[in-house]
Amino acid sequence: MRKNHPCALTQLASDVNFRKLKERADQLSALDRVLQSVLERHQIKHGKIANFRTGTLFIALPSAVWLTRFNQKRSDILSELRQHLPSLVSIEAKINPALAHKTTPSHPPTTTFKANPRIISNTSASYILSAAEHASGSLKEKLERLAALATERKASANNDD
Asked: What global pTM score does this model have?
């Protein structure tokens, strides 16, 4: 038998445990915004709140380099965070390598297609055409189009001048 039966979403949203979970998530989100501004002032990137429990703030950093830099400025960061969160007693930092891969660029890479700068010479075009004479089917058509590129590119280059 099932212990958990389906229930309405409105019933879940009005549940006391759900409200507590939402409040906790909102508190951690607000604390993360404060932490990001403090870390930015100390030039520490990619730090993230892992948890806040019994006066201890747990921070995840992507590498040992950032952990070392954080440890050098730990007391300054702690005093700044205490101004926003007086119940803060200590800070513990751990390495979480998964954070290093989750950074997203502010601008997605754009794909630009460039025209092929290679030019087919008249000699090459004549060789391709002679090969096309002995070919059959779709290969013949493709070789003829390739040879035609030599004259097309030269014509467009002359028009650009």
From this structure: 0.53
